[in-house]
Amino acid sequence: MSKGLPKRSEDYSLWYNELVKRADLAENSAVRGCMVIKPYGYSIWEKMQAELDRMFKETGHSNAYFPLFIPKSFLSKEASHVEGFAKECAVVTHYRLKNSEDGKSVIVDPEAKLEEELIVRPTSETVIWSTYKNWIQSYRDLPLLVNQWANVVRWEMRTRLFLRTTEFLWQEGHTAHATKQEAVDETVQMLNVYATFAEQFMAMPVVKGVKSANERFAGAEDTYCIEALMQDGKALQAGTSHFLGQNFAKAFDVKFASKEGGLEYVWGTSWGVSTRLMGALIMAHSDDNGLVLPPKLAPIQVVIVPIYKSDEELDKIEAKAKEIMAKLKVKGISVHFDHRDTHKPGWKFAEYELKGVPLRIAMGPRDLENNTIEVARRDTLTKETVNLSEIEIDAYVEGMLDTIQTTIYQKAFDFRAHMTTEVNSWDEFVDVLENKTGFVSAHWDGTSETEEKIKELTKATIRCIPLDQKVENGACVLTGKPSNGRVLFARAY
């Protein structure tokens, strides 16, 4: 199954694209720039959704749904917001088609022009805040904690499956608060939710930080982010949480009667992650043999492959496999018994290796005689023979899955540590970007002009100003001007 899969070291981009397709995660669609997420890929996304949704609800949020279409006039109400998204918007101008004169095709009916064009949502701040105006009258209506799972459209010229597509799936939280501090606390809380999910479920270490003014979300006062490092040394923004201040409340006149009897604008936040996390999951852990999935997000955590020559042998193996499966399912472990007679065991081994199934159990007639199984780990590609008389299979598998989850995280953590480099001069900065890559920790003078110049010269951007940034006097690597702390630069997706 993985034969011919490009090597990461030779062509990382091709390796990624081929792996997404061969592992049955997604494929390009008939619509340019859009993708079809296949069942196996979507099952991973569903597990991501389920865990995130649980975490959102545990922090007091409820799900709702808002329109796909946004009146064009809404976007012009918040100046920086429209400027940030104007070049990416898909616009609906007509509401009807009709047959062409020759009857061989359909054309847009020129008589069916909309009075006001509709924007296919690139993000939902405007339509949601126009709704919040009707929902919020008093301090008793606050805080308003809402999330929606939806699709959005941002017109992209260069697309890549999961990482950047014209249409993608995501969640977007939108909250309203009575005070600035409550809104800031909410913004930080959701950043921490994303970081916890990335590290504990995706097994992907992240840096929590704040975006520079140049990289800030259009319409926000502050953007908090989690940044991850992929195996090719490029950074990937894995989630963002925005403190909106009162910008959208003022744009849509969303006020509330305070306890003191005054009329005040509410304070807002928005936050989101998308199917881009699928790309991050693939690039953070997978190898030249295929996917490496952390057990907590793997659709199939354990697969049992029988090795047999006759139906009688299969029946005996299946009976034993069912005993094992029953014990594992009680523990909530997803297990699959692959008794297909259309493929040989070796082919199945390669298939499940390609698809990143964390644990593979093989059983043959001799194993039945000896009461043993062969257990193969996907993350280390190691195998061992286990005597079922000496272990409790459910506890053994549960412990092994926990070990795999931890091992995958630690490997990614160690890689990031190795690929994070402090530099103190421009020559060092350029050398690391060109020859080592990864995160570059460097002093910056705090100006947008310097940030833009560095980007122009190196294609590296400030990924974040780390939340744990230490006060440290230094000199900007480009201008030599004073700096009181290091920021993280990297080339990024």
Automatic annotation (TrEMBL):
Coiled coil: none annotated. CDD domains: ProRS_anticodon_zinc (cd00862), ProRS_core_arch_euk (cd00778). GO terms for molecular function: ATP binding; proline-tRNA ligase activity. Its main location: cytoplasm. Residues 27-294 form the Aminoacyl-transfer RNA synthetases class-II family profile domain. GO terms for biological process: prolyl-tRNA aminoacylation. It is an enzyme of class 6 (ligase). The keyword Cell membrane does not apply. Pfam families: HGTP_anticodon, ProRS-C_1, tRNA-synt_2b. Consists of three domains: the N-terminal catalytic domain, the anticodon-binding domain and the C-terminal extension. Homodimer. HAMAP family: Pro_tRNA_synth_type3. Belongs to the class-II aminoacyl-tRNA synthetase family. ProS type 3 subfamily. This is Proline--tRNA ligase. It comes from Belliella pelovolcani. The lineage of its organism: Bacteria, Pseudomonadati, Bacteroidota, Cytophagia, Cytophagales.
